[in-house]
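Input.
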Amino acid sequence: MKFSMIFEAQIADPTPEKERQTYLDSIEQAVYAEEMGFDGIWAVEHHGLEHYSHMSAPELFLATVAAKTSRIRIGHGAVCMPFNFNYPTRVAERAAMLDVLSDGRLNLGAARGGTLQEAAMCNVDPAETAAQVEEALRIVSAAWRSPDFEYHGDLLDIQAPQGNSPLRILPRPVQTPHPPLFLASTKPDTVVLSAELGVGALVFGFGGLDSIKMQHKLYWDRVKSRTGEKFVSDVVNDHFVALCPTIVLDDEGEAKEVGARGQRFFGESIGYWHLGGAKPPTGDTVSEDNIAYMRSKAASEEAAFDRGDRPQYSERSLAAANFNIDHAYGTVDTAIKYVEELEKVGVDEVLCLIQMGTVPQEVCMATIKAWGEHIIPHFRLPVTERQHVSAAV
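Output.
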């Protein structure tokens, strides 16, 4: 398995000063992740979602990390690819330049954009986003696979003026024929779609191990049954990446509480932007029992699903996913046992979510260190040698 981290740039009770510090803290974490043996870092793209995510220009964040590192892979997780967010040829240009600047370390994921708030900011029609993302992936891969290109699709026709030289994306990416492509797959139908398109799946992991297992089966069942007519490129990337929320400290109880508080902020802040409310949460719950709150909230959300008061996803766990805290929150041994279950499922890449709006920088850094010194090395060993190491830790 590969191990990576994802950055949202979340900020509880944001100010311009805290915003700037969050970017600097996230860069420090990403650089330290390379030192600690992580294989990759990813950055989301969101617009105007105060508190939840201040990562509005991930290409700049990723370029900064690339300049400060030499080995770790740099991933868009993911670019909002509806045309009014980012026009496909501009995605191809910017991403190719990032691949050049990172010396061939880029992964490129695509997303529809998460909320109506963001769609309104960029005049995006939510009804058109699914088709536009798929076409954008086709355009980007076509522009990268051939020095000269034109494109004639269902939604766009892109070609040079008559009599002019052909269109050409500059610079050309280092990776040939192009960097690996992914799709943000937050629901079962998009997990299946990523397999149909021949791209990697960036999978929502808050639902827990059973949810990830189900989504992995959906992905690989479709990989085995697909005919290839929907592939967006002649290069296939069957790579299953699963989100893993994690806080690892010597004190298991403290780690679980910090993780529960961080995930509570995460869930309630994105819930605000999806469902509305008086104001976004500020994460001011340090004096509360966040573990008990999250377990109670998860139970109430599942009950609401059973009554039909929540979207009827194909799996019940998604209704309460944001409030499920059965993740890698605890000691090194807790995290190892959780990741061993991901390994059994067949996950190709474990995507650690550490930077949540209420998690202090020192806890983020301690968690990265614990993964780098104990958890990642554990999984670099043959299975036959692991029991001794786990017991020693």
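Residues 388-393 have pLDDT under 50 and may be disordered.
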